[in-house]
Amino acid sequence: MPQPQIHHIGISSALSSLRSEGCWGTGDLGCLRPLTDIAAALGIGHIEICGLRDYAARESSIHPAFIDLRSLGQLPNRNKDAEYRQRAAELEALQEVNLPNVYNVKMHFLHEKFLMEGAETLSSDGYHAFWAANRSWLESYTVFCTLRHKYGTGNNRYWAEPEYQRLLVDDDFIKEYAEDLRFHLYVQYLLHTQWEDAVGYAASKGIELTAGPDTEAASLRLDGENLETWELEGLIRRRLCEGADDLSLPLRDWLGITRLETGSGPRMSISLEAILAHRALLEQIRKVIEAPEK
C-alpha cells in the first residue's frame, strides 16, 4: 500500500550526483525512477532535481550528458556496442563525475543511433508536437550545439561566429550543417521524452518531480551497511525540529553518519537500487519523518 505523502518534506539532489545500475559515469534521467520509488517508500511528496539544464539555454534545454542510454537499446554491431559498454564501465568506476568524457562518449553513441533511427524519430507526431511547443529556444540552441562541437568549446568568444543567433537566417550555414542541426534536435527530443516519462511516473506515485536551480546541489549519499539506526534517528529528528516550514532532505547530511566515502567526491557511493532494497532502513526513516520529535 502506498505511504501517505508528506508534502512539506522533499529530496533535493543534483542529477549528476545520483548513481543507479547501468549509468554511464554520471547520474542520468534513468535514475529518477528508483529515486521516485525511494521517495514513495519514505512518504516524501516532492523531488527537486538540480543541474539539469544545458547552460546554452538554461530555461528549457537538458544537458545531453544526462540522457539515459539504457532505454535506447544496443547497437546492431556487437563489437562496437561492446566497446561503448566497456568505456561506460570505466567512467562508472570513477568516484567523481567526469562530465566532458561522459558527454563525448554518449554523443558518439547517440550519433550511431541517429544514423539508424533519426529520420524516423524526427518524422513522428511526438517530435512535431515537441518542435511546435519549443521552437522558440530549439532553433538557437541547436546552432549553439553545432558550433560547440565544431570549435570544441561552448565559449562563443572563441568562435568565428560569436553572434551565432544570426546564423538562423544564414541559408548557407543551415544547408552545410543540416544534419548536425537535426542531430541536436533528435537528442533534445529524446531527453525531453525521458524527462516527461519520469515526471509522469512520479505523478503516478503521488510525487511532484520538478527541475530545480542550475547550481550544483549537494551529493545524495548513503551507505546503509555502515549506518547505525540511532544516529540516523538523531540526525533526522534534529533536521525536522529546526522549525522550517518547508524542509528539504537532500540526504547529503547523512554523510556524517556513514563510515565510507567521506571524501569530497560528488557521487553517491552506492546505487539507488541498493538503497531501495534496504527496506528496514527506509521504514525507520519513514517512521521518523512521520513522527518528528517535538
Count of individual beta strands:
4
Strand content: 5-15%
Low-confidence stretches: 216-233, 243-265
Name the average pLDDT: 78
What order do the strands of the largest sheet run in, or round the barrel if closed?
Answer: 3-2-1-4
**Over all CA atoms, what is the radius of gyration?**
21 Å
Give the class from helix and strand content and strand pairing: alpha/beta
Reported for the largest beta sheet, the result is: 4 strands, parallel
Number of helix segments?
Answer: 9
Helix content: 40-55%
Question: Gap between N and C termini, in Å?
Answer: 28 Å
Number of domains: 1
Shape: globular
Pattern of helices and strands: EHEHHHHHEHEHH
Describe this structure in words.
The structure is a single chain. The protein is an alpha/beta fold and 294 residues long. It has one domain (1-294). The chain is built from 9 helices and 4 strands; from the N terminus they run βαβαααααβαβαα. It has helices at 32-42, 78-92, 99-122, 125-151, 171-176, 178-204, 229-240, 272-277, 279-290; strands spanning 6-14, 44-50, 208-211, 247-248. It has a 4-stranded parallel sheet with strand order 3-2-1-4. Helix 1 (32-42) links the parallel strand 1 and strand 2. Helix 3 crosses helix 6 (178-204). The two termini are 28 Å apart.
